[in-house]
Amino acid sequence: MQFSIVAGAIATSAKKEWKNKLNVFLLGIILIFIGIAIIALTPYQQFWVMFVGSLIGFFGVPILQTMLSTIIQFAIPPEAMGRVFSIIRLMTSIAMPLGIILSGPIADLIGIKYLFLLASLLGILVVGLTYAFSSIRHMNDSEFGKKITNVKSNDV
User: How far, in Å, are 67, 82, 125 from residue 30 at the CA level?
Assistant: First the structure.
């Protein structure tokens, strides 16, 4: 799996300037969810299929992390950067134990295979709906960055 993470990091860093950072970020998320779906659909004792799903999913992790950091650094004023990264870290720190607490009972009800499949399908659905029905899709526009960076620092 580390090979896949390193390959994803090399693929991300090979290109110096990404024009559509948001689309690449969403590609990273989709790769992770596709990997999870493949793992969920792995037939009994077909570990090579699970391995392929893991490779695909872990390939998306450095893409997602790199593009998220780049988008935040582009869109957030430098004086608010520390607060924004602190909030992101807080949200991920809260989400992880909450997910662990909730996933056990849900897996008992529907099974681990269906939990993985449901999580990946819901994840892809949320990404698609967020992109389709919110202003996030305009994040690649130069005007979007200008609108955010023109906010006064005491408003952030």
Answer: 13, 28, 10
Listed residue (61, 57, 67) closest to 17, CA to CA: 67
22: number of Cβ within 10 Å: 20
Q: How far apart are CA 66 and CA 25, in angstroms?
A: 8
Complete domains list, the chain, with CATH: 2-155 (1.20.1250.20)
At 35 the pLDDT is 95
C-alpha span between 151 and 85 (Å, rounded): 18
- pLDDT tens digits, 110-122: 999 999 999 999 9
Q: How far apart are CA 15 and CA 118, in angstroms?
A: 34
- Per-residue model confidence (pLDDT) at position 15: 80
State the amino acid at position 123 in one-letter form. Answer: G
- In this prediction the pTM is 0.81
Cα atoms in the 13 Å half-sphere on the side-chain side of 132: 6
Cα separation, 13 vs 129, in Å, equals 28
Q: Residue 6: which of 62, 52, 69 has the closest Cα?
A: 62
Phi–psi pair at 12, nearest 5 degrees: -70, -40
* Tokens 């994803």 -> residue: 8
Q: What is the pLDDT of residue 31?
A: 95
